[in-house]
Amino acid sequence: DVKVTQSSRYLVKRTGEKVFLECVQDMDHENMFWYRQDPGLGLRLIYFSYDVKMKEKGDIPEGYSVSREKKERFSLILESASTNQTSMYLCASSLPALGANYGYTFGSGTRLTVV
Amino acid sequence: QQQVKQSPQSLIVQKGGISIINCAYENTAFDYFPWYQQFPGKGPALLIAIRPDVSEKKEGRFTISFNKSAKQFSLHIMDSQPGDSATYFCAATRRSSASKIIFGSGTRLSIRP
Predict the structure, then answer these.
(1) Residue A92 has pLDDT above 60, yes or no
(2) Comparing C-alpha atoms, which of A36, A20, A52 is closest to residue A92?
(3) Residue B94: per-residue pLDDT
(4) Neighbours of B35 (CB within 10 A)
(5) Most CB atoms closer than 10 Å: which of A49, B29, B44, B83?
(6) Is the pLDDT reported for residue B1 higher than 60?
């Protein structure tokens, strides 16, 4: 079964800490994404990558950075965690083009709480 | 112009009834409109998708209706079942550019037994 795996299900971090969220996919997908999900706001794109070492900002990149050193792995970094970054973080991957039966494959999410 | 507006935010339907979720978009360059289904504790999963050259697509009890002139599309769930209780997201993008799907704000659907 194809899979996107996020390393942690729940995380609690302190304000000011540097936080790493890891994501690995086994589908040889070119594209990888990081979203955050908040009630009433849907899914908002933080960063995406369409190739190794390539990255582009999404809609809400402030306070975040990313790293993609290998095709299967995409890391989200919170440089200095703040309470307003408490959220559910979702990683996804996809082929370069989308179709009726193939879209984004999401991980199960990491619920991050910053205290 | 990049937004996808989704309504309602939450919906309660009796078992066996029809669930209807509506979405609207602005960008006429969009040519791919997927719906994602998310169960508690899981990530969203692709449910059904439509292209603007068709007005309706049906898969089992799930139907997408598409109105290109009004720039609106909707999801209908016929004979709704308790197992359909989930959060549903509509979305839009260009198929050739998978880099930025724009998601709606989500609808939390509850099916009452």
Answers:
(1) yes
(2) A36
(3) 82
(4) 23
(5) B44
(6) no
d(C-alpha A111, C-alpha A109), whole Å = 6
Residue B71 to residue B68: CA distance in whole angstroms: 5
* Residue of chain A whose alpha carbon sits nearest to that of B2: A59
pLDDT class of A1 with cuts at 50, 70, 90: low
Tell me the average pLDDT of chain B: 92
Of A42, A50, A56, the CB nearest to B103: A42
Q: Do B46 and A104 touch (CB under 8 A)?
A: yes
CB nearest to A42's CB, from B96, B99, B106: B106
The CA distance from B96 to A55, in Å, is: 18
**C-alpha to C-alpha distance for A13 and A24, rounded to whole angstroms:** 22
Give 3-state DSSP helix, strand, coil % of chain B, rounded to 5: 5, 60, 40
Backbone angles phi, psi at B111, to 5 degrees: -105, 115
Q: What is the pLDDT of residue A40?
A: 83
For A13-65, how does the pLDDT look when each residue is reduced to its tens digit (9 = 90+)?
999 999 999 999 999 999 999 999 998 888 999 999 999 989 999 999 999 99
Q: Is the Cβ–Cβ distance between B75 and B62 less than 8 Å?
A: yes
Structure tokens at B77: 């769930």
Q: Chain A: residue nearest B96 by CA?
A: A97
